[in-house]
Amino acid sequence: MSNTSGKTPKLDKLDKGPWPSFVKEIKRAAEKSPMSKDLLGQLELSYEEKIGHWKHGGIVGVFGYGGGVIGRYSDVPDKFPNVAHFHTMRVNMPSAWFYSTEALRKLCDIWEKHGSGLLNMHGSTGDIIFLGTVTDKLEPIFAELTEAGFDLGGSGSDVRTPSCCVGPARCEWACYDTLNLCYDLTMHYQDELHRPAFPYKFKFKCAGCPNDCVASVARADMSIIGTWKDGIQIDNGAVKEYADKGMNIQKDVCGNCPAKCMEWDGSTMAIDNSLCRRCMHCINVMPKALRPGKERGACIMIGSKAPIVEGALLSSVLVPFMKMEPPYEELKDLVEKMHDIWCEEGKNRERIGEFIQRVGLGNFLEAIEVEPSPYMVEHPRDNPYVFYEEYFEEGDEDEGEEEDE
Amino acid sequence: MSQDAKKRVTDIGPPHYEKFLPEMVKKNYGKWLYHEILKPGVMVHVAESGDKLFTVRTGNPRLVSIHTIRDMCTLADKYSNGNLRFTSRNNIEFLLTDEANIDPLIADLKAMGFPVGGIGNAISNIVHTQGWVHCHSAATDASGIVKNVMDALCDKFESMSLPGKLRIALACCLNMCGAVHCSDIAILGVHRRPPRINHGILSNICEIPSVVASCPTAAIRPTTVNGKQSVEVNEDQCMFCANCFTVCPAMTLSDPLNDGVSIWVGGKVSNARHEPMFSKLAVPFIPNNPPYWPEVVETVSKLVELWAANAHKYERMGEWIERIGWPRFFELTGIEFQKEHIDDFKHAGLSFKRSAHLRF
Ligand code: SF4
Ligand code: SF4
């Protein structure tokens, strides 16, 4: 068969073209790693047969952790013995994915010594993904990682590795310090991150402004999205510069404002900030002229997830505005209450968003002691079937009045 | 416990990010004033102090070898004081303080086969999952399709010719590890054959009550096959979500004849102008056709071209479709509207047209 002969005619077709090729990468790793060579062979087989050849199952990990390693086994180990065991390790990335070349080289050395030499920069949740090693190597890799200052990320029903956008490190729109919050949450929840004890996974994502460069609204159980309360800062001179350079301020900026709350008369930009929805459009197109306001914080949204199990959800508003300053006590108190009720009453494999759908947001709010607010809904209910919890009986009313006196 | 185990360090978390921030970033942290896009893939951030930080962004296949990472380190040492970062869409960014280094860096990257772009009104990298490279539940390959689609659209990564931003994502099954469900274009692997049950091993490796409970449509019931405890699936009720397979490996959904790819359009996560939106179904099924997946590439390219030709400035795919309406979308794309396009899961009625606002 072509694939055990080491020939990979189908995959070879993908090592050309203008976009950098993953096949080239696997081949590069395969020059030194028999694992990567067999990975290439098994992938060629998948391309021939149009089916994957991995099995799940078998709990593997490092001592004392319940997450961070995903067991993976080939279902054709006779043909590709070097990937019979091919486990993934998730390594917690630094906030906003900044690296020194020194640190990256160190990671490469560890992975060259103990694994396939292939990795994902990065995985969907944000971790550095070491692709392919065997059970015996897990402890040595872990020891060398911790010595280099790195640790494993989350997997399974635990706090998943929090991630954040580039934030104040290089973005003028960051309304709070996303890198710091991300690091702080990661450190605060080390136990919850490494030892799964939840009904299902729990993700934090920290976005500095409503542009949401980490897709938190779609992918995080708690989406922390930077915003501001006061008015947009306007530099009229700079607006004029954009206009002079050919920008159609009326059409491109004001015309696209979803709130229709902007006016430009050729010399002055006026924004009705009480109607502004903090959508970022105008700021995005005129970064030199407009800036978020000065009273900054974040909107806390909860519950988004991919379809599995009961369908996809976007996060929804829990706290419209919260100051985001270390040590983030208010946020952590809130998280703790959320985790308590979810751990107590959530079903197995029920994300917090699905849990809220099941028990009702109103009941959830009561449990976490947050007052309902119109900011939390698109509109009040339009269905009249209200679950009232109590009712009066004859004579109750009088007693009520007496109590009032 | 052995001595080794005692020395063992745990729960140290990731390195503190400050260790990796470029000096200029540390100095101007939180004090950036504005940025400008200088050309495709290159931008400058200007700080209150007047400092300028130049960013050069390059594509990245995401699945990389340590050798390529080391090459990138060599470039970073040469041009950006050893500083680089990755973006949330898996691009690589070099952070330069010396403007004169921009063009030599770009030349070196291009010589290595790494395109520079993905900033502004361009397509960014395709966020994607593992596919046949490393996933047990994949209905398609991820890296292969991404490579083909990006080959076809690479000029739109390297230029800023599009009306607005274009975010494509791919997930190899409905588990959707990635923000696929809120992308301008989402490529999603789908299974279409109900689980085939390995009755011989099921009760040894799976807990029957959790298998039964895993099914969102209650299609799974306990049963006995040849004297062994197992489960059966009411196939009419199966929507191929693979929840059962996730909890029980003896319920295989993968099947070469029936697996393939669906295409979804019009989602977004950013709040700019329109609120975040889910992607909606455009093409229910395209068979797997490796190594080139020509039908997928053609469909995606056509969608991009139509949008690019018809959208207003800044208008994302979903905003454009909302303006013209779905009937015109199907008319323009030539995609046949079928039964599968109509939702029939929970809250399906919310997606029915509930007004007489019709564009003819
Ligand atoms: S941020 Fe959005 S809503 Fe507010 S003024 Fe600008 S465009 Fe309008
Ligand atoms: S694939 Fe989904 S719907 Fe079908 S039997 Fe499994 S859990 Fe039920």
Question: Class by helix and strand content of chain B?
Answer: alpha+beta
Helix/strand-derived category of chain A reads alpha+beta
The residue fraction in helices of chain B comes out at 25-40%
Gyration radius of chain A (Cα, Å) is 26 Å
Say which molecules are bound, naming each kind only once.
iron/sulfur cluster
- Order of SSEs of chain B: HHEEEEHEEHEHEEEHHEEHEEEHHH
Q: How many β strands of chain B by DSSP?
A: 15
Subunit arrangement of the protein? heterodimer
Largest interface: A-B, 123 and 119 residues
Q: Distance between the terminal alpha carbons of chain B, to the nearest Å?
A: 76 Å
Order of neighbouring strands in the sheet with most strands of chain A: 8-9-10-15-16
Shape of chain B: globular
Shape field of chain A: globular
Largest sheet of chain B, in brief, is: 5 strands, antiparallel
| Ends distance of chain A | 91 Å
How many E-type strands of chain A?
16
Total of helices of chain B: 11
Adjacency order of strands in the biggest sheet of chain B: 1-2-3-6-5
Q: Helix share of residues of chain A?
A: 25-40%
Q: What's the rounded overall pLDDT mean of chain A?
A: 95
Gyration radius of chain B, in Å: 24 Å
How does this structure look, described?
- The complex is a heterodimer of chains A (405) and B (360).
- The longest helix of chain A is centred in the last third of the chain and has 17 residues.
- Helix content of chain A is 33%, strand content 15%.
- The model of chain A has no long low-confidence stretch (mean pLDDT 95).
- Chain A is built from 15 helices and 16 strands.
- In chain A, the strands form five sheets. A five-stranded mixed beta sheet of chain A has the order 8-9-10-15-16. Chain A has a four-stranded antiparallel beta sheet with strand order 2-4-7-6. Chain A has a two-stranded antiparallel ribbon with strand order 1-3.
- Chain A is globular and about 75 Å long.
- With 405 residues, chain A is of the alpha+beta class.
- Chain B is of the alpha+beta class.
- Chain B is 28% helix and 21% strand.
- Chain B is built from eleven helices and 15 strands.
- Chain B has a five-stranded antiparallel beta sheet with strand order 1-2-3-6-5.
- In chain B, a hairpin with a 4-residue loop joins β2 and β3.
- Chain B starts with a helix and ends in a 27-residue tail after the last helix.
- The chains are: A alpha+beta (405), B alpha+beta (360).
- The structure holds iron/sulfur cluster (2 copies).
- The site of one iron/sulfur cluster has 13 residues of chain A, from α11.
